[in-house]
Specification:
By secondary structure, this protein is an alpha+beta fold. The chain contains three helices and five strands, in the order ββαβββαα. Helix 2 (91-109) packs antiparallel against helix 3. InterPro entries: Longin-like_dom_sf, Sedlin.
Length: 137
Amino acid sequence: GKQMSSYTFTIVGKQDNPLYEYVHSTKKEDAAQNQQNQFFVHAALDVVDEEMWKNGSMFLKSVDKFNDRVISAYVTASHIKLMLLHDGKSEDAVRSFFTEVHDLYVKVLLNPFCDKDAPIPSPAFDARVRAVAKKWL
């Protein structure tokens, strides 16, 4: 069957401030592991910033690797970064996931009461991201 996998998805704002995070783990990964995953994602931000200027494209394939985990990134026109730490998903799946989540995120921003630099509080957004993740990842 399809192997269950764990991944960490983060939306990071222009100031490298976390706007949203979703950790999907199969077994109860300990807090230390999650801490480490967050550290990896943050370490990769510098790489993303560099790649972004060189690359100019929104979807950056794997920007970094840690052990057997890969970090893929997607940078929006307004420099919001979508980061996914995963164990080697297909590029198409990751791209599709990012594209759909980006659409959801854009809809959140259309809300006039939305503070673009604050974490996304919406449970509806969270539920939709989870549904998209379930579909692609």
